[in-house]
Amino acid sequence: MVAVTAWQVISRFILNNPSTATEEFVRFGLIWLSMLAAAYVVGRKGHIAITLLSEKLKDGKKLALGLVIQFGFLFFAAIIMIYGGSRAVSLTMAQISPSLGIPMGLVYLSLPVSGVLILFYSSVNILELVKEKKEGAPIETQVDNQIKIN
């Protein structure tokens, strides 16, 4: 993306002949990168969190909060990203991007792909919470690892 953007700047300001395909490519690439990065952050448990409530809770309530957060991710990923994203893909697959000539559905495909990854990572996070609870690990430590800000 950096190389393509650099070429866009060179072609626009030095050659006075801007390339429209590079601008569209970077825009679509940024959309895909953002969506995949969101899934990655969920997998690394590095999402933004407000810890005011979680710091005051103990043991079972803290575990419940961690589970509610992960189930919230599951719900959002399943309904909004996978279901809604799949609908957006099917509705826009016939539309062709002006510069690259690719179906716009490929751009929107980043939603369901990222949604599946978030669904997977949230499921793993829930299983880890339950497993650590059964093994007797301190709830404060495991839930703090789930909802901390990195």
Automatic annotation (TrEMBL):
InterPro entries: DctQ, TRAP_DctQ. GO terms for biological process: C4-dicarboxylate transport. It comes from the Bacteria. The keyword Membrane applies. One of its GO terms (cellular component) is plasma membrane. Residues 1-131 form the Tripartite ATP-independent periplasmic transporters DctQ component domain. This is TRAP transporter permease DctQ. It comes from Salipaludibacillus neizhouensis.
